[in-house]
Amino acid sequence: MAASNQSNDELIREEKPPTINNNLLPFYSYWKKEKAPREVKQYYSKNGHLKLIKSLSIEICTNVDQCHNLWHEFNQNRTLFDTWEFRQAFFDSYNPDLHFILLKNNEENVALLPLQYEQEYNRYAWFGSPWQEESGFFVKDPLFIPLLLGISPTPLYLNAIDKEALIWAKDLIDFAADDPKFILNLSNIQSLDDFFHSLKKKRRYNLKRDVKHIESQLPQIVINNFSDFDKLVELNIKRFQQKGEDTDWEDPRRIMTFRHVLRLGLMKKSFQVRMISVYINNKLAACDLIALYKKCYYGLKCGYDVANFPGIGNFMNYFEIKDALSLNMKKMDFLEIDYGWKNKWFEEVPLFKYEKDYNSDSIVD
């Protein structure tokens, strides 16, 4: 979209903010025309924020270097998903269009909504794809969150939003519950016995039973044999086929993504990677890809031969808790979606989503 021959007024009349660089649009004019909820507009009018709103401008950033700089200006690097490198792995593999919405006044940048446009799904989503978790809003003040969402393009799908990001905005914006994620806080767990004692009697029995069953087969545990990555993918695809379900590994771009994750993790620019392989009778029974970031142990991807080695999933959970403790980790992150087992062992953490002219229930990523 060429913008050189258009006035600001003409640009404002576009259906959504134009995907252009180096064009500042007066926020107030666009805000008046935008179909933001009436209660949101009334809140800002009644609470003396019109002067603030009239001082703001919008800039749409699509250049990767500029977006990179803005990301680092606002980002607080709380989790693995906050790192540019981890999200870059997805961006490089899927090649969506960047659409970072920047709010600024005459003095500084005040808010950033880092989006990408995914043509395949005809939607705007978080930079890095909906695979990211605990996403938050990049704002100097929570006051800017409804303003960002009010001028955001459509269809818009923002998933896995951190509950802390909603403390102020939830009274003005309708956020819906998303699939929860699951964690294990290790700060009060000094040993595996501490973890066992935290479980109900039946679950403790089942876990110990499965661990003994696998240990009786004399498993060989190999750390950081990253050449097992292809086997991890094969095991995962085969397991989902056995259950009659699809897996994201069937998309070659997802395989490429995690090859990038491996490469970036081995470079140790921001996070590290770790791989745990379990062989039984010279056959790969399980393989997990782990990321380490700020004392958190992330279980990213796994492949298990459950058909030939029943109980291997529980054994891997057991071993990785022991592994995380040996590395002095403070938390384990088992990611979003329960898959019918995570809630039995780990703490549930709520996540939220925001949809604008979009129905995620009809889409399968």
What does this structure look like?
The protein is α+β, with helices and mostly antiparallel strands. It has two domains: 8-179 and 353-362, Aminopeptidase (3-Layer(aba) Sandwich); 182-349, Gcn5-related N-acetyltransferase (GNAT) (Aminopeptidase, 3-Layer(aba) Sandwich), CATH 3.40.630.30. It is 33% helix and 26% strand. It is built from twelve helices and 16 strands. Strands 1, 2, 3, 4, 5, 6, 7, 8 and 16 form a nine-stranded mixed sheet that branches. It has a seven-stranded mixed sheet with strand order 10-11-12-13-14-9-15, sandwiched between helices. Strand 13, helix 12 and strand 14 form a beta-alpha-beta unit. The radius of gyration is 23 Å and the shape is elongated. 36% of the residues are buried.
Helix and strand topology:
Layout: H1 8-12, E1 24-26, H2 27-33, H3 38-46, H4 50-54, E2 57-61, H5 64-74, H6 84-94, E3 97-104, E4 109-118, E5 123-126, E6 138-139, H7 145-150, E7 156-162, E8 176-177, E9 181-185, H8 192-198, H9 201-215, E10 220-223, H10 229-242, H11 252-267, E11 272-280, E12 283-293, E13 296-304, H12 312-326, E14 331-336, E15 347-349, E16 351-356
Parallel strand pairs: 5-7, 13-14
Antiparallel strand pairs: 1-2, 2-3, 3-4, 4-5, 4-6, 7-16, 8-16, 9-14, 9-15, 10-11, 11-12, 12-13
Helix pairs in contact: 6-11, 9-12
